[in-house]
């Protein structure tokens, strides 16, 4: 019997997380190409409720404008918060907080600018050498996502994205380049960020433009299959290069609960949860679960596969399961009769009357994280890593560079308490990285003012500002959490 564990493991990986497309900037430096993220514009004159529209749907007109050198649009993710030129300063601040790890991504377009080149871009590879060396200087373990919402735009416009089988070869070539180059510098990898989110934003995840698409569900699941094969191949390459390395999958997990005890609500929750966990089911187990046949049939999806796909997937499941957790979502079989949770962009869902919400309508449910950890560990019996969790909020800089973000401290504290409870339950969770540990460009709204970090960046939504880094009150709070290994929580 496994003994009761009441504390975080001694080697627990505390840290923070960002994505290259939201933090780096330097979009036209050292040979980098345009990514799908670089096509997102931002118009501060639009109503706030429309800021996330483009993230959820991209049009051909917008893509054409994004590729126009004379465009007057502002593209925030091309600029990030200039980590590319501030990485030494930023990593030093991470080290001051005591980070044990830093979850980051490699920009595919720094390594293969268009995605279909035969040889990688040395300048891009050299940049990440410098980043990894700087992390190791402070004893910080890099946790690296190979593809995090930043596939080359050229692969979307010229090949149709992941629905095209050729993308498997392009991804494997890219993965081979980075896995080979950094095999002695990176121990923890993830193949795709929030792979299940392709259901909700196919352009971002798959490079598939849904405008006038003849059969979008077919494109989504065909693209998913190609990503499953690519992930399995990358896992095999990783293990061949360094057997001690760990490859994980990563999903967005919004805990789903029935709105009521109506049997229809319960069944609707089961079905919606299967749609969310289908992706980690395949990657963690190495095969399609039994419910796949009916799920795809009801979507009128017929997958095109190669004879070797099944064996490749079965022989190369991931080592651990990683997930983001921001909120839970209530499910009803009759959502039209109830008030929706407007902030739950990925799953929609019904407003839970027992929960509060952030300024962006994201319902806050710390106890749901404990439930999610137990559900995932019971389901997979593989180590878990919480790769994203955080609160987006408007921060105010007071005189003397004081930023009182007690709301963020409260949110994170309450969630970390529940991780500790899950550890007591017997869950094997080995790391936690707070999302946007330094202020970044928001994935969904392309704002900087929707801030998550322990470190404030003096930059506005249109890129103005000094980019000066300022410690928030949460900086010292998190420093103490790490120093005490989670023993001093409220």
Automatic annotation (TrEMBL):
Keywords: Glycosidase, Hydrolase. Coiled coil: none annotated. One of its GO terms (molecular function) is beta-glucosidase activity. One of its GO terms (cellular component) is cytosol. GO terms for biological process: carbohydrate catabolic process. The keyword Hydrolase applies. The keyword Hydrolase applies. Belongs to the glycosyl hydrolase 1 family. The active site is at residue 388. Pfam families: Glyco_hydro_1 (PF00232). This is Amygdalase. Gene3D superfamilies: Glycosidases.
């Amino acid at each position: 019997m496994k003994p009761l564990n009441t504390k975080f493991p001694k080697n627990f990986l505390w840290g923070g997380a960002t994505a290259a497309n939201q933090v780096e900037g330097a979009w036209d430096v050292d040979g980098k190409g345009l990514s799908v993220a670089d096509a997102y514009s931002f118009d501060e004159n639009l109503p706030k409720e429309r800021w996330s529209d483009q993230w959820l749907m991209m049009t051909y007109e917008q893509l054409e404008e994004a590729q126009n050198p004379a465009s007057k649009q502002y593209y925030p993710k091309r600029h990030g918060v200039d980590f590319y030129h501030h990485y030494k300063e930023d990593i030093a601040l991470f080290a001051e907080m005591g980070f044990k790890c830093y979850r980051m991504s490699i920009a595919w377009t720094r390594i293969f600018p268009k995605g279909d080149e035969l040889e990688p871009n040395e300048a891009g590879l050299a940049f990440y050498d410098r980043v990894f060396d700087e992390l190791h200087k402070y004893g910080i373990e890099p946790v690296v996502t190979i593809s995090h919402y930043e596939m080359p735009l050229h692969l979307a416009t010229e090949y149709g994205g992941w629905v095209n089988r050729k993308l498997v070869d392009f991804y494997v070539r890219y993965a081979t380049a980075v896995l080979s180059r950094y095999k002695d510098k990176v121990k923890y990898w993830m193949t795709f960020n929030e792979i299940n989110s392709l259901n909700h934003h196919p352009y971002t995840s798959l490079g598939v433009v849904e405008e006038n698409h003849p059969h979008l569900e077919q494109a989504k699941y065909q693209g998913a299959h190609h990503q499953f094969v690519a992930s399995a191949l990358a896992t095999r390459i990783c293990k061949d290069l360094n057997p001690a390395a760990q490859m994980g999958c990563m999903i967005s997990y919004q805990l789903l609960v029935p709105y009521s005890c109506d049997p229809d609500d319960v069944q609707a929750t089961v079905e919606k949860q299967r749609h969310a966990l289908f992706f980690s089911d395949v990657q963690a187990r190495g095969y399609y679960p039994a419910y796949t046949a009916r799920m795809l049939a009801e979507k009128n999806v017929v997958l095109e596969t190669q004879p070797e796909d099944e064996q490749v997937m079965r022989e190369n499941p991931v080592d651990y399961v990683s997930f983001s957790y921001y909120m839970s979502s209530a499910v009803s079989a009759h959502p039209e009769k109830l008030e929706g949770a407007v902030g739950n962009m990925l799953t929609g869902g019904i407003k839970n009357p027992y929960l509060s919400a952030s300024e962006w309508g994201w319902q806050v449910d710390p106890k749901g994280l404990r439930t999610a950890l137990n559900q995932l560990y019971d389901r997979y019996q593989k180590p878990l890593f919480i790769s994203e969790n955080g609160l987006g909020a408007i921060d105010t800089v007071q005189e003397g560079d004081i930023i009182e973000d007690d709301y963020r401290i409260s949110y994170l504290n309450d969630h970390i308490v529940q991780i500790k409870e899950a550890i007591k339950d017997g869950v094997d969770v080995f790391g936690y990285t707070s999302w946007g540990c330094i202020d970044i460009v928001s994935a969904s709204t392309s704002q900087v003012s929707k801030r998550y970090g322990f470190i404030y960046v003096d930059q506005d939504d249109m890129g103005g500002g000094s980019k000066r880094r300022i410690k928030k009150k949460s900086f010292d709070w998190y420093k103490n959490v790490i120093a005490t290994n989670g023993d001093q929580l409220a």
